[in-house]
Structure formats: structure tokens, C-alpha cells
Amino acid sequence: MQKPHLNATIAKARALWGKRLREEDYKRLAGFTSVTDVAEYLYENTYYRDALSGVDLRTIHRGYLESLIRTSALNRYLNLCDFQKLSNRPFFEFYLKSYEINELMRFVMYFNSGSTEHFLSKVPTFLLKDASFDIHALSKAQTKDELLAVIRHTPYYDIINEAGLDSKNRINYPRCEVLLRTYYLTRLRSIVEKTIDNSERDELIMQINQQIDLINIINSYRLKAFFDLDNSAVMERMLPFKGRMSNDQKQKLMSAENIDEYLSAFSHSIYGRQLGYEKALFFEENISRLRMVSAKRGLMSARGVSSCLYCLDYLFGIEADNIVTIIEGIRYKKPYDVIMNYVIY
Amino acid sequence: MSIEKLELLRIKAPIEKLDGILEKCCESACFHIVPFDEKGGFQKLKEENRYKAPLKSCAQLANQLGIKLEYVDSDNLELDSAEEMKLWVDKAKSNADKLTSELNEAKDKLSEHTQALTQMNHLLSLNIDLMKIFSLKHMTIRVGKLPCENLEKLKRYSEKPFVFIHYDKDSNYYWSAYWVPVSEKDEIDSIFESLFFERIYVPDFLTGTPAEEKKQLENEIELLKIKVDELNSRVSEFKEKISDTLKMLFVRLKMNESNFALRENAAVKDGIAKLEGFIPVAKKEYFKACFEDESKIELEFLPPDSERDTIIPVKLKNGAFSRPFAMFVEMYGLPSYSGFNPTFFVALLYTLLFGMMFGDLGQGLLIALVGMIMHKKTKNAFSSILIRIGFSSAFFGLVFGSVFGFEEALNPFYKMLGFEEKPIEATENTMLILFAAIGIGVAIILLSMLLNVFVNLKKRDFTQSIFGNNGIVGIVFYAALLYGIVMTIGFSRNVFTPVFILLLMVVPLVLMFFREPLGALMEGKKLEKVPVGDFIASNFFEVFEFFLGYATNTLSFVRVGGFVLSHAGMMSVVMLLSEMASGGANIVIIIIGNIFVTCLEGLIVGIQVLRLQFYEFFSRFYEGNGVAFDPIKVNFSTNVE
């Protein structure tokens, strides 16, 4: 059971979520025709005001605006952790590992395409000093050996090594992604099992299991719909955990011969039943909505501070993604309806 | 407390007189127009509203110049025809466009120069002609700003062929420049772009050193400011010049446009227009007088139900005391034209029940005072209700001896009247208050049942008026049951004899069970055929529900007593808290506590009384299915579609 004094952080987290961007805000934002209008609206009407103060909103670079939005979301989470000195507990560092792994995966993509010099620009600045490996050195790595040298003393060394090279001497990205995510989730579950008390542990494990299921569902959907891979190839790319879905349901999904069969099997799964899903249109967004609903519920009903903040971090991330989606939509002059289809609320 | 008698007025006139007729109907403020059906060869008028375009231009012009449109007397307007009005608006708009465009141009230039000055301020440490920097043949220079957080990332590209300097810094950016060989600029630009370097485009007219250009810019900015001020004052003069005419024109156009829009309610045949609407009978002579000089206008006054398909609107007629409470009746739904206006009963019961449930002399007078202030400012119905319920609360406060929670403050007053102490001590007479509340409830329920009998007898609905649960047999059953309970519990006299039970309880229940066939029999209607099983089952449960309803609805009034006690309880908490505080804090607590209790309890009691009215009182006899009498009028809203 959560120590009662940490309830203050839970209350603060919920209060902060109360200030989130709502449907009306997204509609207003998606209705703008310039990135400047978006920045001004966020500055005038939302809790992104602090993040945007001191910036010239008329000339702000789109990429910088996106970076500020994401940093603001992360800072909100970190401030909450600092509020009652939670930062020194092992669980609350999950965000750092998650960022490291995301950046490593991104680097592998740049590495494989031979354009590593553009990797650094999008790295969150805090990682330059907080990451467990030298990001500068990583961004200069041109060969697999140079890459391995940078991460030699980290757990990622064995993972990248194990991922191996493909026929074109590129790092096997799909394998690398599965191994990195598997490492992250195994470590996260292990910390939860060891350091979190009973009832709170169940809440967290449920969220993590759902996260695993939904990652697997989105990945398998993509592989079935766009790459037409056979079942064994799809199975290789799945995260090897038992989530909330039964093995039988999982097996039916993976063995679907085509995308229609896949969607039909999905509609009978625990997630498909919740979604009342019939069509493939915006499948991934609908899956993300499902996770968002669960995270909202998790935030509001959490008995422990760790599950509460875990859900909140996810929700802040989704909010930042939504804003970035809108900014990109406006930049590419997409119609309002098209942009709104990709916004998750 | 009745419903205003109406008549149907049919006006027939040559079409060219239609605008004048509609204007007079608007002025009367009591003509409820009825859209005319296309029959007898008459057709609806389909024409474009010629006042719409100039009205829109008028609103745009006002918006452009910041003129607040409002209702003004338009008698002095010298423009008559639609064409004249349109010409005036177009001319004024063209002049305004010219002026504002000049002003915007000057403002843009001022803004451009101000931004350039900001850039020059950051470039002051460069002691070289800008012209020379930007016209280098083999090198390209980019000036701009780099987010501070990305300076660290720039080190990654240290081996690339560029020189980066930052000459100023603020909280978010390094104001900086980089030089790059022309042949490498695409790659380096791409790197800086990826690091969110925001380029600043130095205007072409800046050619000297930043320090020189700064000076020149400052001079030019001064001149531009003077120009902007001058243009601003010219705009203000123009605004002042046209303001009065524009407001009058807007009012006239709005009136003409609204009237014109009403023309679609008329029907036309062979150049003759027909218009129909309901008017109060009391205004009949007024309408006759309005059109008596017009030879070609025919007025025909008909009974309100002359047109079978037309719903007769309802205009409530209330006395001064009950008029504001019509708001609650309208909220529930107006009665039909042939129905019953319950506003007086609503006013009476609402005022009494609120006063009883929220009895405090001080707080009541405070509510009345707030109502008076609001009434002075807004004149709305809610403020009038506040005044009435405030005084009622004050009166019952006098009975309960409570003034802002001070329960003994009125004792000298009672002694002066010859009482030993205050008449009712709420906290010590809990049961008395709760039984009294139920007694009040019984009286209200019986009143609503009697009203149901009256209303439905008027409609010749014998099922509801005689055999229904709220009809005569319902009253007999309910009264007998209560009488029996009161005699048994209160006076230890068992009146539930077999004859009493059979005649006053069983027979009424049986009559209720057969209310539909009996009612149909009395009304001479043919009874709808229903399977016997269905009839028994449905009527059994309905009668059972009636029985439960009598009990629950009566007990529902316990809340009246509950609130009397809760008021005393809440104020005793305030007093307790004030006693715990020391110094001046106790007065503050008493003031804040009184405000809190007045607002919270006032709101809750207000809602509860309304609930009692709507649910326990209205549901027994009232059907709010009427349509409001809505006279045509000119809409002076400044919103223009």
C-alpha cells in the first residue's frame, strides 16, 4: 500500500492532468493556418506558457517549438518526481531508459541509412549529460565497432551485438528493436516486482502488460497490412511477453492469413471488444486511444504514486505527440479533418 | 392568474402596403404572427431581402472603425430609400478602406523597422558594413539565433567548414552568425536548420555598419511613429464624423431588414397580401385605430380557434405578486390556451416554503436587499423573486427567532410582545417540525388534487377528474388513509372499522382500478379493446404504484422540516467556530459563515422548493404543453449574419 504522505504527489498529478489540452483546444489548434498561431495559442491559453516564454513566437522554428513542447511534457513529469523526492527511487528512472533506448533505435536507423550526422539534432538535450553513454561519440560512429565501443560498458552492448548484421552489412533493425524493447520491459518489470508493494504493483503490471499487447498489436498490424510477412516472421518481431491477451487470442491474430482475417480476429480479442472495431481506417490511432483511455483510468484510480506517474507520463507524451501532429499537419497544409483524425484525445 | 384572451386577426391589403402594416404590428408589440399557409391560390412571398447587403456593410464598417453599434433614435436620419442607404454606406466604406490601408501600411513599415532595429542591437559588435558582408563573392554569411540548448550539439560538427560566432545571448537564444564557403552552404545550412537556427533576414535597405544603421533606423522610426499618429487621428476624426449617422443608419436598416424578413409570413395573390396573427382581445381597438385611416386595408377579427391547425399561443395574465414566478412556469412548460395558469399557486407556495425552510430574519433581509439591488440594475424576474422570498425568509426568521444565526437576539422583542421566549425553538421541537412539514405536504398534495379535479372537469375528462389517483376517488382514499393514521397514532382511536375500510378505501381503490372503462362510460366514448389479462396486470401494478406514490410523495415533504433543522445546525457550527477564535477573528468567522450559509443553503433550498413544486405539485394536474405568445419585434442585436 502507498505511503499516505505520497498522496500529495498523486493529488498534484491529477490536478496537473486537469489542466491538459482538451478537445476544444485541439480543434482550435487544428483550425489554425500557421505554426505561429499554434505557438501563440499555446502561449496564451495553456500550461505551455512557461515553456514558450522568452521565445519570439512570430519567428520560432517549427522544430524548436516541437522540442520545447516535448521538453515541457518531460519537465512536468520530472517536477512531479522532485516534489516529494521520488527521483532517487529506481522505478522513476524508467523515463531515462526509455529515452536512451529510443535514441539508440533512432541512431541505428540513421546508421543503416548512412546519415548519422543528422542524428544529433533531435536528441533531447538532457541526454547529452544524463545518458549512460556518450551521445556525441555515438553520433560520430561510422562502423558497428565504433558504435559498440561507445556503448561497451552499458547493457546495450550485448543487445546490439546480438542483433547482428544483415546481408547488406547493416544492423538488423527489427531484431535490434525487439531486443531493446525486451530489455527495457524486462528491466522495468523486474524493478516493479522488487521495489513496489502489492496493490500498486498489480496496477503497474496491468498497465505494462497492456502496453506490451498494444505494441504487439500495432506492429503485427503493420507487418500484416503493409509488409505481407508470413506468420513466423511476424512472430519473430513480437515482444516475448505474456500480456493481458490470452495465448489463444494472440495465436489467432498472428496466424491471420490476410488483413481482413486479422481485423476479424482482433475484433474478438479483449481489446477489439472494447473498441467495437470493424474497419481498418485509423487502426493505429484507435489502438492508441484505447491505451489512452486505460491510462486515464489508471491515473484517476491509482492507489500508488508509481502507477499514477507512469500513466501521467504516457498521457503527457500523447499530448505532446498531438501538438506535434497538428504542427506538422499545418506545415504540410493538411485539411482540418485530416489533422483531427490523427489527434488522440 | 389567468390566461389572456386572444383573437385571430387577419389583415388583407395591397402588397405595397405590407411593409407599413408589418411596421405597425411591430410597434404594437402584441402581434403574434402565424405563417400563412399556401391555400386558396395564395402563395408565399419569395424575394431577396434588399436591406441585407447594406446592413452587412454597415456592420463591417462599424467593426473596421471600432464603432460600437447600439440602439439610437433614427428619426433624424436623412436617408430614406434602400438605394440612398447603400450609396452612403459604400462611400463611407471606401473612404474608411483608404484610410485604414494607409494606416496599416505605415504600421507595417514601423514594425519592419522596429524588428530591424532589434537585429541591429544584437549586431552592434560587428564593426563592418552590412553591404560588404552580404555581398562577399566566395563566402556566405547567415545571421540569426540558435537555441541555447543546441550550442552543445554544434560541437559535433566542428570539423565542418564554417565559422560560427555568437555576439549576444538572451534566455533562449545565442544571437549569432556563421560564415561558410559558397560551395558548402547547402550542407552547412542543412546542419544549422536541423539545429533550429532561425535565420534573420536583414532588410536590403540596411547597408552601413550596424551602429550607423541603428542610428538611421531610430530616426526613421521616429518619423514613422509621427505618421502613424497622424493617420490615427485622421481615422478618429472620420470615425467621429460618421459615427452618429452610422448608428442611425444601422438601426433603420436593421428595422427594415427585420420587417422585410417578416414578409415571408404573408401570402400573396393578384397583388393582395394576407397576414395572420394573434392579438390580445384588449388590443382589438388599438389595432382598429391603427388602420382606420387606411382605406384599402381590411381587418378581420376571428375567434382564436378559427384555424383548426393553428396552435393558439399562450400569454399568462398574472398579478404583481406572482408575475416574476411565471419564469418557473415557463421553465416547466406553459399551459395550453384552454388550460389552467398555476402561477399564483407557484408564487404562493414557493414563497412560503422557501421562507419556512430558510427562516432567518437577517439572512432573509440580506437576500431581499441583494434582490433589490439586482432589480435596480437588471429588472429581471429572478431579482423580483429574491425580494419576495427574502421577505418570506425574514418573516419566518422572526417566528423561529433567528438573526444571522443569533438564536437569542430577538428575545427582548418577544418579551415585549408578551411571550416568555421565542415561539418555536427549532432544535428542541424536532418532531413537531417534521410532523408540521408532513402536514404542509398533505395540504399541498390535496390542493393539487383538487386543482386536478377542477382542470379535468373543465376538459370533461372524467377518467382523470373522478376516477384517477388524483381525482375525486383518489382524494377520498388519500384523505381517509391519512385520517385513519392520524386518529390511530395521534389519538389512539382506531377508526379502521370494516365499513370505513370498505367504503373509503376498498371502493376507491376498485374505482381507480376500473378508472378507464368507467371514465369512457361517462364520457360516452367507446372503450379500447385490451386483453383481460393485460388489463388486470397493468391496472394492478398501476394502482399499487399509486398507493406507493401517496406514501412517498407525502414523506417527501419531510425535507421542509429537515431544512429548518439544518439551518439551525449550520448556524450553530458557525457560532461554535467563532467562539473558538479569539480577537477580531470571531467577527470575521461570523461574517464569512453567514455569507457561506446564505449562499449554499439559499441555493439548495431554492432548488429543493422548485423540485417540490415541479414533482409533487405540478405532476398531479399540470401539463406544460403550450406555446408562448411571442409578438414580432425588431431584433436590434448587433450581430449580423
- Give the total of domains of chain B: 4
Report the β-strand fraction of chain B as a percent range.
5-15%
Alpha carbon gyration radius of chain B: 40 Å
Q: State the end-to-end distance of chain B.
A: 40 Å
Indicate the multimeric state.
Answer: heterodimer
Mean of residue pLDDT values of chain B = 87
Largest sheet entry of chain A: none
Sequence stretches where pLDDT stays below 50 over 5 or more residues of chain B: none
The count of strands of chain A amounts to 0
CATH architecture of the domain at 1-87 and 304-345 in chain A: Orthogonal Bundle
CATH superfamily membership of the domain at 1-87 and 304-345 in chain A: ATP synthase (C/AC39) subunit, domain 3
Q: Which ranges of chain A are low-confidence, i.e. pLDDT below 50, for 5 or more consecutive residues?
A: none
Work out the number of β strands of chain B. 12
Name of the CATH class of the domain at 1-87 and 304-345 in chain A: Mainly Alpha
Main beta-sheet strand count, sense and barrel state of chain B: 6 strands, antiparallel
**End-to-end distance of chain A:** 31 Å
Describe this structure in words.
The complex is a heterodimer of chains A (345) and B (641). Chain A is mainly alpha-helical. Chain A has a domain at 1-87 and 304-345: Topoisomerase I, Chain A, domain 4 (Orthogonal Bundle), CATH 1.10.132.50. Chain A is built from 19 helices and no strands. Chain A has helices at residues 7-17, 23-31, 35-45, 49-52, 62-83, 94-113, 126-130, 135-140, 144-150, 156-163, 173-195, 198-227, 231-236, 247-254, 259-267, 270-275, 283-301, 305-331, 336-341. In chain A, helix 1 (7-17) runs parallel beside helix 18 (305-331) and helix 12 (198-227) runs antiparallel to helix 17 (283-301). The longest helix of chain A has 30 residues, at 198-227. By secondary structure, chain B is of the alpha+beta class. Chain B has 4 domains: 1-45 and 269-313, Alpha-Beta Plaits, CATH 3.30.70.240; 46-125 and 213-265, Up-down Bundle (subunit c (vma5p) of the yeast v-atpase, domain 2), CATH 1.20.1460.20; 128-208, Alpha-Beta Plaits (2-Layer Sandwich), CATH 3.30.70; 324-427 and 568-628, no CATH class. In chain B, 59% of the residues lie in helices and 10% in strands. In chain B, a hairpin with a 2-residue loop joins strand 9 and strand 10. In chain B, helix 3 (82-123) runs antiparallel to helix 7, helix 14 runs antiparallel to helix 16 and helix 16 runs antiparallel to helix 17 (498-513). The longest helix of chain B has 53 residues, at 210-262. The interface between A and B is medium-sized, with 20 and 19 residues.
